[in-house]
Amino acid sequence: MKQTAREALELTPSRTGRPRLDKSSRILARFYEPLFLLQALGQTRGVHTRRERDSNDVTETRRKFLENLCFVCDFAQGGESCTAIGLEERVDKYVFWLASNGKHPNIADFLKSALKFLCLTASHLAELEPDATEREFTQICADFAKIRINEQWKRMLQQILGQDDPIKLCYFAYDNRRSTMIAELKSLASSEERGLSLDGQRSSFYLVQHYIGRLAHHIRAPRELIQDSRNIEHILQTCTVEIVDLPGVQIPLRDTHTNLKGILNRMFREDNANEKEEVEEGLIYLDKVSGTFNKFVGCYKRSGVDADVHAEIKVLEHFHRSKLRFAGNDRFIACSKPACLCCELYFKHHPAYFVTPSSHKKVWPKWSPPKVKYGPILDDWAIQQRKILSKITEDLREQVINHVLQRSRNSHWHPDSRTGITDLQSMNHQAFSMESDYSELSELESDFNSLDGSESEMWSDSEDGGVSVSV
User: Fold this and answer.
1) Which carries the bigger pLDDT value, residue 199 or residue 96?
2) How many structural domains are present in the chain?
3) Which of 26, 140, 148, 242 would staple 20 via disulfide (CB 3.0–4.6 Å)?
4) Containing domain of residue 409, as a range?
5) Is residue 450 included in any domain, yes or no?
């Protein structure tokens, strides 16, 4: 007997249900239980992590180029247009394998035109005026991403900064990212957030600071693409663009086995009864103070809906299953946003040893592994995915157990994307100036660790998330 998402979570089974005989249903049910429980305990599971930099300058330049390509292709807020790219090297050419969370063929068209522009630029660099070329390409990228820029602009900065031209605002943000006012915003945000509750929204000062950084990246990314194109001209001269897409699974329905006792029995071995009892008591306590079980049950409202395979997982599996060769044998997949928790774990446990991406450490309950067939006899892909999901499930369960036993406070909320402004301690201070000089663009910056704020569902889904949501 199926249960609706509105029914409360049973602590103990009131009736004996039909065993989960179907292999696919059983594997997915066991995966989504701890995923939804972790989401109910708090969406943000830690601070941003960075991918490791490669010691080879050629490799690192190529990686940065791919990451910036992904950024300029990601044209909208939310996760629907989140873009991933893997670069295949063949004997006669290079192939940019492109995927997005949703179905957006316009991304492939834009990528082709962007690569053509960069190829022509790299081939005729000595004949071109650098600043004019950068401005032209920046405008092309901004026109494609105008939905995203307008959303970032209108959300926090239009009234504050008095700018009514989105691209000028991007230049303004870029040129003033070193201002002493950024340090002042950071200080004000820190002071304000000390008085906010864990369930409160991020400080408005922090959000202004964050959006200044994101708007500035609409200038930085095209500029870096122009600069790096000269170093990978051999790739740009013989390249094509191909699209990758993989279907996801349906989120399983709740059944009579979806009760607290059953979930805990699947999380613990029989010889670990004491710890299981502690976790049960802890979850019941957390439910009383924060409604954990209602949040858990609410995740099943999407039952029967096809979940999303995130872009980087699509590219990963395409390269692995097709046995494609990465450019420079660098098993790297670029993405326009840091990986969610499940994507990070999928990379970690995949047998092909891909480069582990940076991660925003958030739980996205509409996440899906690629769909495979679980027949009476499992094929190689089904066996591989079962092993990967089993390891991810164990990691998710361990995080649930640790959270409950340690009575952990919710991790502070942060946007999925990094702010992208260097810490002011390493900068030469300057004042805010509304008179931006478009031709004087500063050198490349690294990200800084942004302030930790509190969990905020109001902002978490709409701010550069891993899934499509309504704002």
Assistant:
1) 96
2) 2
3) 26
4) 23-46+251-307+361-426
5) no
